[in-house]
Amino acid sequence: QVHLVESGGGLVQPGGSLTLACAASRSFNNFISMGWSRQAPGKQRELVASLTSGGRTNYVDFTKGRFTISRDENKNLLYLQMNNLTPEDTAEYFCHVSDRLMREDWGKGTLVTVSS
Known about the structure:
The protein is mainly β. Helix content is 0%, strand content 51%. The protein is built from no helices and 11 strands. Strands 2, 4, 5, 6, 9, 10 and 11 form a 7-stranded mixed β-sheet that branches. A 4-stranded antiparallel β-sheet has the order 1-3-8-7, with no helix packed on it. A hairpin with a 4-residue loop joins strand 5 and strand 6. The radius of gyration is 13 Å and the shape is globular. It starts with a strand and ends with a strand.
């Protein structure tokens, strides 16, 4: 139903910042929620942050105010601004959306590596 492509991952030093972007083939206005999840090596995938169509945000505790989710409606882009990164943030980051029937679509992910 929608093609999602993440970008912006890479290698960053501890304490550094990255901004991930997710480009959608359709407007995010078609979905009731969108978000970012991550999966670290050997661990289960976990939610990082979400954003509803009404603009309400939800952050998982470990983001501790370091991450910000936002979107550009005109460009069909979803962002995740990440500051003060730690090695524990190393993971593959995925964007995803849910429609009104709770059907989900996921991107293929972008790798974030936090290391000195």
